[in-house]
Structures are given as structure tokens and as C-alpha cells.
Design brief:
Layout lengths: L4 H4 L5 E7 L5 H12 L3 E3 L8 E8 L1 H4 L2 H5 L3 E9 L1 E3 L8 E3 L13 E5 L8 E2 L2 E2 H6 L9 E14 L2 E8 L5 H6 L4 E11 L2 E2 L6 E3 H11 L1
Parallel strand pairs: 3-12
Antiparallel strand pairs: 1-3, 1-14, 2-3, 4-11, 4-12, 5-6, 7-10, 8-9, 10-11, 12-13
Length: 220
């Protein structure tokens, strides 16, 4: 049910920076904050259950009505890829098939504007239904490609069949797809370290709406 104006005024409107642990969904985090603070609560960019890191939680009508602005911010991730195996979901939660085929040491890491196909197990809607719901029913799912931007794609380290990458990308980019496109690989762990000017190091901080918007203006 929609919240009442009285409920929205119960807590100050603003942005809560949360370091999401592995396991809960972004919706779970929002539900917890709603129970604790009351009123209208949303978020500005989903994290997969296995992923960790920064989640921007929007509290109050003045914050949630600006959701699109926060969702459009670029994201920065640390991803650990495991080579020589593939996953039906592109992450550790899927069915893993060992292939033993490890990509070469010198990888071509795409940057710039690229066409990307989101995973079948994603929240993208296909025919009005979330792709992951169709995939879980065993349906054949082809998610349409989309244009995304990769601003930075750096290899941090590589040891045997694993490598760590730091990726800065536009909103709507699926890191699981970026990793899978490197060869026989899936995303073993994923951590979002920043969203626009907001860092996971600031997790736990609450910013009033004006302060959060002011930071966006200064960073643009």
C-alpha cells in the first residue's frame, strides 16, 4: 500500500548509503529500512543477491521522486572472474560446468560504447515478464541487446584460473555478461565500490536530500 504523507514525514528525507552483504536481495534491504524508519523507501540500482557493496537507499518522498537521477549514475565494481568454467546464471548461484578452457593471459577488455546482451537470469522484462522468472520456469529466454558504456576495465591481478577486474560503467551494464564474454568464465564474486560520487567507504552515512543533490552537482 502507498505510504501516507504523515508516514513520509516520520523520518527525514534523504539518502542512506548501505554496504549490502551477500545473500539478501536489494528488496530485502529496502524492506528492512522501511521497517526501521517507516514511510516511503526505495533504492537506486539493484545488486544481485550474491553481490556485495554500495546500495543507495532513498528515504521519503523528496528522495524517491528523484530515483531516476540517482539510478542514472555510473557504477564502479570489483569483480573476480573464474576461468575454465561457465555458470547458467553467470555467478556462483547457477549450475557450474567445468570446461577447462582458460582464456589467454592477454585479454581484450572492451571499453567505450558497446552492445551487450543481459543474462537470461536478470531483472530485464521480456514480454512484460522478468527474464529470470521465465528462465526459472525453464523457458528459452533471449534478452534483447542494449547499448552500454564501459569507461574503465582494468585487470587488477590474475592467478591461475582467477582474475580480478575493476570496472567503471554506465547504469544498466551487467558485469556478469562482461565477464562471460571474456571466454569460458563466470563472475565468482562482485562488489560495487561506488555509485557516482558516493563510495562504499561511506556506508552507514545518511545524507539529507539537498546534501546528496549538492554532491551530484559538484561532481558533474
Amino acid at each position: 500500500m502507498p505510504s501516507s504523507p504523515a508516514a513520509d514525514s516520520a523520518s527525514p528525507a534523504g539518502v542512506l548509503l548501505v554496504d549490502k552483504p551477500p545473500g539478501p536481495t536489494s528488496h530485502d534491504v529496502v524492506a528492512r529500512v522501511r521497517r526501521e524508519r517507516g514511510g516511503r523507501v526505495g533504492h537506486a540500482g539493484t545488486l544481485d543477491p550474491f553481490a556485495t557493496g554500495l546500495l543507495i537507499v532513498l528515504i521519503g518522498r523528496a528522495a524517491t521522486r528523484r530515483q531516476a537521477r540517482f539510478m542514472a549514475l555510473p557504477k564502479t565494481y570489483r569483480a573476480v572472474a573464474r576461468f575454465g568454467a561457465v555458470s547458467t546464471t553467470g555467478d556462483p548461484d547457477g549450475e557450474i560446468t567445468e570446461t577447462g578452457r582458460v582464456p589467454p593471459a592477454e585479454l581484450e577488455l572492451p571499453t567505450g560504447s558497446i552492445r551487450q546482451r543481459p543474462p537470461a537470469f536478470s531483472a530485464v522484462k521480456v514480454g512484460g515478464v522478468r527474464a529470470y522468472r521465465r528462465a526459472r520456469r525453464g523457458e528459452e529466454v533471449t534478452v534483447p541487446q542494449r547499448q552500454v558504456a564501459i569507461y574503465r576495465f582494468d585487470e587488477v591481478w590474475r592467478r591461475d584460473e582467477r582474475a580480478c577486474f575493476e570496472i567503471e560503467c554506465s547504469s544498466g551494464t551487467y558485469v556478469r555478461s562482461l565477464i562471460a564474454d571474456l571466454g569460458d568464465a563466470y563472475t565468482e564474486s562482485l562488489r560495487r565500490t561506488a555509485i557516482g560520487p558516493f563510495s562504499v567507504a561511506e556506508a552507514g552515512e545518511f545524507l539529507p536530500v539537498d546534501a546528496a543533490l549538492g554532491r551530484l552537482e559538484r561532481s558533474s
